[in-house]
């Protein structure tokens, strides 16, 4: 079974990959529209650029002589040098039409030859030759689709005698889309790796390490090390789990102490005297072993006895959930630090949880051993201090 951190990391990475894939798909559709718009703008720009180059290179008006197209005195029909030069400058396919027929072109037919003598598509001929308008958009060019630009060629008298064309292959659009997607994929991969590393660090520090420490604490309890408390840092829920675990340890300690007192403690003996308990099997069984338990009372427990004699605990004993050992430990700390203390300071000093220490302090306050006062700071809630009497 995979560990918790691996499961969380796989879930996180899966979500990031799914999000990145969805983003790239949406971006692909968006970039397709943008690539078409960019190709149309390029066609318009290339039409204007090529027109200026032709006018400067071949001055004069467009005309037809002996069935051939001329620009000034220069013959344009079959002038492959012109269309090849313009094609290299723009990266487009370039064609010059006489009427609706190609007379100079870089467009190739299915046989690989220049498509001289082929016709322009009918919708373009209607828009440019008959309507006298510029056509910019997708068009069928010798069986292939291009983003194109067509502009009418007018003679000196204003009559339309031909068409000038530039065409942008769909490979140009695909290149724009592919380049954009690759760039975004690289950025997305870098961000995914960064987020994964941050998530790994966060899981290790805030979730996995605290849970690991708590797990080690439970193993200590299971093996009998009942005095081991844990201290972890993490999220609020981790802190609550730590506090619950420490309270469980305290309850086990209290229960163990009660059992020891009930089975092995003799109040008539000196507290430093050793008691021996021999454990035997039932009738007919062989003696197993002899266990020696040494019961001692520390300084904190003597302080508790003093409190009892002073009337702080009362004849009814301690409230449910409190035990003499822990109370003695807290009293000893209070006697060693006879100054106003908060529950947090006492908890830090005796290595117990704040909630547990507060119960003992409130008990001592109710018994008359302590008094409390509020300390107000510049910001935040006031702090309750306990003052020994």
UniProtKB/TrEMBL annotation:
<dbReference type="Pfam" id="PF17202">
    <property type="entry name" value="sCache_3_3"/>
</dbReference>
<keyword id="KW-0472">Membrane</keyword>
<protein>
    <submittedName>
        <fullName>Putative C4-dicarboxylate response regulator dctR</fullName>
    </submittedName>
</protein>
<dbReference type="Pfam" id="PF08279">
    <property type="entry name" value="HTH_11"/>
</dbReference>
<feature type="domain" description="HAMP">
    <location>
        <begin position="205"/>
        <end position="257"/>
    </location>
</feature>
<feature type="transmembrane region" description="Helical">
    <location>
        <begin position="181"/>
        <end position="203"/>
    </location>
</feature>
<keyword id="KW-1133">Transmembrane helix</keyword>
<dbReference type="Pfam" id="PF00672">
    <property type="entry name" value="HAMP"/>
</dbReference>
<feature type="transmembrane region" description="Helical">
    <location>
        <begin position="6"/>
        <end position="30"/>
    </location>
</feature>
<dbReference type="InterPro" id="IPR033463">
    <property type="entry name" value="sCache_3"/>
</dbReference>
<keyword id="KW-0812">Transmembrane</keyword>
<dbReference type="InterPro" id="IPR036388">
    <property type="entry name" value="WH-like_DNA-bd_sf"/>
</dbReference>
<dbReference type="InterPro" id="IPR003660">
    <property type="entry name" value="HAMP_dom"/>
</dbReference>
<keyword id="KW-1003">Cell membrane</keyword>
<dbReference type="GO" id="GO:0000156">
    <property type="term" value="F:phosphorelay response regulator activity"/>
</dbReference>
<dbReference type="InterPro" id="IPR013196">
    <property type="entry name" value="HTH_11"/>
</dbReference>
<dbReference type="InterPro" id="IPR036390">
    <property type="entry name" value="WH_DNA-bd_sf"/>
</dbReference>
<dbReference type="InterPro" id="IPR029151">
    <property type="entry name" value="Sensor-like_sf"/>
</dbReference>
<dbReference type="InterPro" id="IPR051271">
    <property type="entry name" value="2C-system_Tx_regulators"/>
</dbReference>
<dbReference type="GO" id="GO:0005886">
    <property type="term" value="C:plasma membrane"/>
</dbReference>
């Amino acid at each position: 079974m995979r560990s918790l951190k691996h499961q969380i990391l796989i879930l996180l990475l899966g979500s990031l990959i799914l999000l990145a894939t969805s983003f790239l798909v949406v971006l692909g559709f968006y970039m397709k529209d943008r690539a078409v718009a960019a190709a149309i703008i390029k066609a318009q720009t290339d039409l204007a650029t090529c027109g200026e180059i032709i006018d400067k290179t071949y001055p004069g008006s467009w005309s037809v002589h002996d069935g051939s197209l001329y620009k000034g005195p220069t013959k344009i029909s079959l002038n492959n040098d012109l269309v090849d030069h313009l094609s290299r400058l723009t990266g487009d396919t370039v064609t010059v039409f006489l009427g609706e027929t190609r007379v100079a072109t870089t467009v190739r037919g299915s046989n690989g030859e220049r498509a001289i003598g082929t016709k322009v598509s009918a919708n373009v001929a209607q828009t440019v030759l008959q309507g006298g308008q510029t056509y910019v958009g997708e068009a069928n060019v010798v069986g292939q689709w291009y983003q194109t630009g067509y502009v009418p060629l007018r003679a000196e008298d204003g009559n339309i005698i031909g068409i000038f064309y530039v065409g942008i292959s769909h490979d140009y659009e695909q290149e724009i889309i592919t380049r954009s997607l690759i760039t975004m994929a690289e950025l997305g991969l870098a961000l995914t790796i960064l987020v994964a590393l941050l998530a790994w660090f966060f899981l290790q520090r805030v979730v996995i390490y605290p849970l690991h420490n708590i797990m080690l604490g439970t193993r200590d309890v299971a093996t009998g090390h009942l005095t081991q408390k844990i201290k972890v840092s993490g999220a609020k829920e981790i802190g609550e789990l730590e506090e619950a675990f420490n309270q469980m340890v305290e309850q086990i300690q209290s229960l163990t102490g009660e059992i020891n007192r009930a089975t092995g403690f003799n109040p008539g003996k000196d507290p430093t005297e050793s008691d021996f308990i021999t454990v035997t099997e039932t009738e007919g069984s062989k003696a197993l072993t002899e266990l020696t338990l040494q019961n001692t009372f520390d300084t904190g427990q003597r302080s508790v006895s003093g409190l009892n004699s002073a009337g702080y605990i009362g004849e009814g004993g301690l409230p449910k959930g409190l035990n003499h050992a822990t109370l003695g430990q807290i009293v000893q700390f209070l006697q060693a630090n006879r100054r106003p203390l908060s529950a947090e300071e006492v908890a830090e000093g005796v290595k117990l949880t704040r909630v547990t220490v507060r119960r003992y302090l409130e008990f001592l306050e109710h018994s008359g051993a302590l008094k409390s006062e509020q300390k107000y700071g510049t910001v935040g809630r006031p702090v309750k201090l306990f003052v020994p009497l």
